[in-house]
């Protein structure tokens, strides 16, 4: 096989980007090599909007042949949350053929070393980036995200998270030198001398179990962390969101082959309806690493049963915002309204419980009662989503019938402060588009607690009346400890309350956003700077990304000889 | 409380040592700040030999009161493998009092920051180092190690491993800055700006479950890694080896208090005979980290049941040396003889299976048959241990009756090439001292396989006849994969065999020593340079020490505010 991508070429091309990423994770200042604006694409080989749309359309109704060994069938059946059937089929694998084939190329991939693996990963990300417009449609029509969000979160932001994982993986592997000369003095006798070599070795085959809502954003960190540390990676997409990860696998296989490696180092495991191969795969002895995003029940099952593997899970949590006081009432309301509305609240980071003292809060517009705060927030959401075009652009579509059912049931849990509204999507009449519901609950009532202490994934927010700031802080603590949280927000002008909330977040290990009133939202994190999750509360056992996310995906084998 | 050890003083005192340790783990060249020679002690406040012995003697028959809260009783009953009763009692804890007390000081310890925690740990290690002579007797009379080994492995080498863990813990925590300014351009609009703070936070209370044979060497990495990352540490010593860890806890509590921290951040959990509190402790919700050295059965139990904790285990393995050919036959024999004899083979790193082709091996002294190699090795061990004084100094004492029973049973497993010999210890008539047994086994026979494929912990070596070098390599692979290995050794002059053995070690993840014929032994590793275990085969799920050993003992909590 002619190697088209030489190490020299790849390193020259990508090493500066890698170095810049390494600097970014050290300083955590803003940085991204992946433009966010759709108009930034279309030159230097990247697809523009029209070409991306055409590429996506060309995939519909076809077979995505990845050239994988052990393909015994074709399967697929994705229906877009916007109502169209994708009609794409993917390879279905005989695991007893595919898994051994994936291991065959691991020796060469291991011996290529950390830098070569990193720049190959960066080439994969570069080619994905070039096809961002195509991926945007793939993400939109599997997750139900609105186009602009699918473009940004599914494109450059996901690519950023992938690159961040590569940077962490690289730096972790080069902490130990390739060789060392060891000379130990022995007094008057000759010193003891050894020559030592150290090599990062992979654990085996890594499994990425994708999710429905953020197939690329949540899939890339594990995929690239495992690949960059020398492992082969098998991607098991969510059956409703196969396409974005299938395209990712396709690009990875192409790049690996062009760089002279075995393309089977990355493969797809699409499943037949109801096949449930995640459970089968998760306990296969070949699988030594698992990355999973999804329900707490299956995440806990993986942590308990996949004992042969390192298991990284992002599960469910209950996200809280403490609303105690504010110096910018309008800013707070509009910031919260946006956070509740974005992608119909279908983010693992969307706030669910707004804890508001029943005696009201102090604001720059004077004191506001609990009822006023809730009514003003409802008005703010209503205003934000009053125009259908803007509502569609913000909300996207409801990803699946379960979310719709939860939304409809939520209205029965308490007094509805803002009813959910059906929004028509003129481009996609089949899309199910709904505005968020805001439900008032009394934090002191046990039946209310049953509601607000469970994750109600989707466009549902609970305005929970609490006795005091102290009560809010204690409820926050209990919620994080018992249910986990991907995010915590707080609005307060009191230094004392701020300290108390911060202390709870430090003790219970949750990421805190304080007094956001502008264009940054509690549910958004930026790669290279913000950690996604903490890995220290029940919502997730890992954070994206840090040293712990990569350090145990490989091991270092030492060989020592007398010098 | 008057703080006697200020941050300024501690940083001035220990920061240079920390920096030197950080350099050592990067270069992995030889380094240690802890002298190995007994005569190096006695100045600058350290105990000399006589003072150390006197300090140890003063402990005998007394009560070691650590001033711990919740002490409801006193317990102890250590009998030295050298025959003397220590007669020391230790606090027995009411866990419902002790564990909450251990958490009380965690906020201040957390807020002190990574550097302060590191230098406090270094002060603890310094004071332990000053008492190395005292610790040597404590280790000798609990583990059964001979004095010089107890001195070195239980003293400076253990202190090195502790310092190494502190260095890894420190550098891991400072990879993320304390604060960051984040400014994201927004085209013509004002940029988005956030001020972010990042703080390493502990997981909770860490549990160290000590072992009988290397209470300090195997205990210090987990203890110091957890403490340096902000956790409180509860030390549960092996009931037969309490004293070395009780003294360690005593020193740690003194230093913590003098530095203005809560001494309850480190505590001892001694148990009554048969109480088995490790199982109780391991699943307590307060316990979030466990470090364990011991049997595979209990290590596996911990990994399966202590789901609320990060579990780091060093269990049992079957260590192999492939003997294929050598350019230094005498050197090989004497090196192997020493490895088999040191501490009566009671090291997790001692070779057990010597794989020797049944057709013999090539050497610089001409071809040697399988029988000749085994006979020459037996003679070499016999010569090394022929003098009782030297034998006592090398072998130490048999640590417990189980080891003695296994040794006695081993002679029945095959043809005995070298019988175990009882050695009298004139200083300690009660000591059980035995030379190793070497048993010949045919690798192809199933009943032999049952013997050599199990760990036979103690002074037992199997000379396993194999069909060929290739057969040896395959058996090596199977042994590591199925049973795990802390160490692998190989003797070969063939580049092809060397590559094959190396490839097996890379694929099955085991640490390899090649052609050792001088004063470095396969069972010894040096902190800052050698990894102890790989963390990638069944013998241990962690290596001492690397990034993975520390990275998940803490989490980073981010607080972000609009700038």
Automatic annotation (TrEMBL), chains A, B:
Domain of life: Bacteria
Keywords: NAD, Oxidoreductase
Annotated Aldehyde dehydrogenase domain residues: 93-520
Spans traversing the lipid bilayer: none
InterPro entries in alphabetical order: Ald_DH/histidinol_DH, Ald_DH_C, Ald_DH_N, Aldehyde_DH_dom, PaaN_2, Proline_metab_enzyme
Name of this protein: Phenylacetic acid degradation protein PaaN
Annotated source species: Streptomyces caeni
Gene it is expressed from: paaN
